[in-house]
Design a protein that fits this description.
Elements: E1 2-3, H1 14-17, H2 19-23, E2 25-32, E3 35-37, E4 50-55, H3 62-69, E5 71-72, H4 78-88, H5 106-109, H6 111-114
Antiparallel strand pairs: 1-5, 2-3, 2-4
């Protein structure tokens, strides 16, 4: 999503937004001036920032998010997204049926801490309480 000049995000630090708590969305990267930056709680958003957002909650209403925060939705397809996902370090993995992760919740697996990942989520967009299945 891209931050419009009239967005309530402009001039705010990520810590102030509480975006994950309010909407289930997590900003995993920001493109600003053609460069990718890794966001932190102290990152201040600017007009025209492109936000790479992971929607943690399967029920997150993208249209409502756009309207509430005055954001432009950008397509998630094509060469641009593929190139940026590699720069950010996004990866898609398949968990085999024999994995020790099967039957555990995302929180129980502790996969994020063990692999020193910033963020991760299940492709099926399960909530943190849902169990991974083969």
């Amino acid at each position: 999503m891209r931050v419009r000049s009239g967005s309530s995000f402009v001039g705010k630090k990520l810590a102030e937004l509480l975006l994950r708590d309010v909407s289930g969305a997590s900003i995993v990267a920001i493109e600003r001036g053609g460069k990718l930056i890794q966001p932190s709680a102290s990152t201040e958003l600017q007009p025209r920032d492109t936000l790479f957002i992971d929607l943690l909650a399967g029920g997150t209403d993208v249209a409502a998010l756009k309207q509430q925060y005055d954001l432009d939705e950008l397509p998630l397809s094509g060469v641009y997204f593929a190139d940026k996902s590699q720069e950010i370090g996004m990866a898609e993995v398949i968990v085999p049926a024999t994995s020790g992760l099967i039957g555990k919740t995302l929180l129980e697996s502790d996969f994020r801490a063990l692999r020193r990942l910033r963020d991760w989520s299940a492709a099926r967009r399960n909530s943190a309480g849902a169990r991974l299945a083969p």
